[in-house]
CPBP family intramembrane metalloprotease (Croceibacterium xixiisoli), 227 residues
Amino acid sequence: MQSNAAPNLTWQSPGWPEVTIALVTYVALLVPLLLWMVQLPPEQAVLRGLAGTAVNGIAGMAALFAAFALRIRRLRVFGFRTISSSWLIIGAAVGLFAFGASFIVEYVYFLFITEPNTQADFQVVAKSGPLMLSILVLTGAILTPLGEEFVFRGVIANAFNRYGAWVSVIGSALIFAAMHGPSVIFFDALLVGLLTGVLFRKTGSIWPPAITHIVYNGLHLFHYSIT
């Protein structure tokens, strides 16, 4: 006999179970990397830079997979939706804006705070020749942005949507920034997180924020190579 009961709609969007397993997976993969990296001597800056970007991207993708495998198992629910090319162009323009705005953020920050250069490893890699720069772009400007957007927008901002736009955009941006540590990069990441959060909220697609993040990271890496 077939039941006429309405289908259970509780799991139609990510919730706290997905947020929890995604963050646990993400942190569990990054912590061993950080412990290993701090033991490397200064002359291993290239290895640290490439390993850091690669593992960060992989960790984000693994976090999405963990959330996906938990109960929903439909990528569309996590923002994997086709979107018009106009939104992708907007995403690229927002990435360009974020790149320029980050210099203002950093200028103001360093008026009040002095700290070691947290991007030194990436700068060393970017200046280590075309091959190293190409690998860095692949890991830092493609793999890392995709992984981070998958988890922080596809899972976390998505789950927070149920509490409204403010919680979704600001909450996910704050968690994203916190994962970058207590430095000027916290504020750079907060800027990117707010902009990509708005794009995700507007479109429901992961691709415009991913383009923003790719353009932002890519421009910074090329900037490192010439300064």
Q: What stands out?
A: The helical segments are 16-37, 45-72, 85-112, 120-126, 130-160, 165-178, 184-203, 207-226. The chain has one domain: 16-74+83-226. The first helix runs from residue 16 to 37. The chain has a mean pLDDT of 93.
